[in-house]
Structures are given as structure tokens and as C-alpha cells.
């Protein structure tokens, strides 16, 4: 267990990656200072703390910055006492890490692409197809990893629940914005039921924003992308 800590988290309300870290810290019962970042006007602290990607989240622990949400959540789990976030069993631990990486490598680029895409409906449709394909693979993984229990982590949420669950409010935002279901109950009934349970957990209710927050940010973001594309086209 760590001693007296100086923890500051640089995040953003609608960043699922920052939400992962907030959930992990909350599960461990750790106090920290939270600083909201504006990604259209990044702070000097963010730029100096994460000079490679210049993105949130960044956890600054006793003056030392840590970047990338999957890395930070594992760090928090190892450092602080409290409920285990990653599985204790070595095989299950490695498997959870594999699927967390899958979420970030396959699912996240697809749904972020749906949000960013401003060119053609065909391009958005391709991203939707990629997202649904990833969801179907995660549906199969849940059937195996949950072992018939409520969550990927068993009877309570764990590492993979946090990783995927942090994206759910954006999926709801897409339903509002595009009439689009990322997790279809007719195709992925296990994940659909899991998503309902996840949303009702105390951990999710404490830090996950409402979908309308994401919708508003999405409209601002899409306007910024469109303006940038228009400016680039005139050069």
C-alpha cells in the first residue's frame, strides 16, 4: 500500500479513457485532485506531462506523470490497497489485458471514426460495420470470461468492465445522434444485458456522465473538424 500520495488527474468529462482512471481511483477509495482539460486549448501542464500524445488522461503521482489509460489503471491497481481491479489469476489477468487492448485497438477507432467522419455516408457505414464486428467478438469473449456471472470481472466489475463500460455513454449518444445501436440486443444479447447492469453500478453512476453531455461535445467536435477541413481545402 502506498503512503501519503500527491495525485492529480488531468482529464475531460466526456473522455472514456479518463473515466476509466476515475473509476479505478474511486474503486480503490483514493483521494486525488481532478483538473478538467480543454482539448481545444490544452494546458501547459498537459503538454509538458504528455509530450508524445498530448492527450488525457494523465495521472501525476508525486510529480511524476503517467500516460495512457490502460497503463494508469493497472498502475493504480498495483499501487493501492482495496478491491482488485485486474483478475488475481495469472491467465485470467493476461486474458483481460488482451481483450482490453482489443477494445482500444479495434472498437474504439471504429466508434471514434463514426463520430469524426464528415465526408460520406459510405465511410461512416464502414466504421459502423467495424464497430459491430468488434462487438460480436467481445460478445463471444464475455460468454467465456464471465463464466455465467454478471460481469467480465465476475460478480462485480473489474478491469475489462471498466475499459468497455467507459464507452457506453458514447454509444447511447450515437443512438440519439444517428439512430445507431452499437450494441444490438438482437445480435449481442449478453453484452446488452451486461451494459444495463454496468450502468446501474455505483461505480458507473459516480463518474460516468449522461449521454447528453457527449452529444453536446460531439456537435462541437464535429464543427471543429469541419472547420479544420474547410480551412485545409482553401490552402
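Sequence proposed for the structure above (235 residues):
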Amino acid at each position: 500500500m502506498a503512503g501519503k500520495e500527491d495525485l492529480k488527474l488531468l482529464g475531460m468529462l466526456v473522455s472514456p479513457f479518463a473515466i476509466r482512471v476515475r473509476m479505478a481511483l474511486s474503486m480503490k477509495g483514493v483521494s486525488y485532485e481532478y483538473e478538467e482539460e480543454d482539448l481545444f486549448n490544452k494546458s501547459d501542464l498537459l503538454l509538458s506531462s504528455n509530450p508524445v500524445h498530448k492527450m488525457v488522461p494523465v495521472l501525476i503521482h508525486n510529480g511524476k506523470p503517467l500516460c495512457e489509460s490502460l497503463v494508469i489503471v493497472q498502475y493504480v491497481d498495483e499501487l493501492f490497497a482495496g478491491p482488485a481491479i485486474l483478475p488475481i489469476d495469472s491467465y485470467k489477468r493476461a486474458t483481460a489485458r488482451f481483450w482490453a487492448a482489443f477494445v482500444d485497438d479495434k472498437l474504439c477507432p471504429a466508434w471514434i471514426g463514426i463520430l469524426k467522419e464528415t465526408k460520406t455516408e459510405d465511410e461512416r457505414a464502414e466504421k459502423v460495420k467495424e464497430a459491430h464486428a468488434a462487438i460480436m467478438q467481445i460478445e463471444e469473449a464475455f460468454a467465456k470470461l464471465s463464466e455465467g456471472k454478471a460481469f467480465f470481472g465476475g460478480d462485480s466489475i473489474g478491469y475489462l468492465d471498466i475499459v468497455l463500460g467507459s464507452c457506453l455513454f458514447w454509444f447511447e449518444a450515437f443512438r440519439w445522434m444517428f439512430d445507431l445501436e452499437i450494441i444490438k440486443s438482437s445480435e449481442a444479447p449478453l453484452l446488452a444485458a451486461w451494459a444495463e447492469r454496468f450502468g446501474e453500478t455505483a461505480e458507473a453512476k459516480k463518474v460516468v456522465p449522461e449521454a447528453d453531455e457527449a452529444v453536446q461535445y460531439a456537435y462541437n467536435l464535429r464543427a471543429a473538424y469541419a472547420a479544420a477541413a474547410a480551412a485545409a481545402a482553401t490552402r
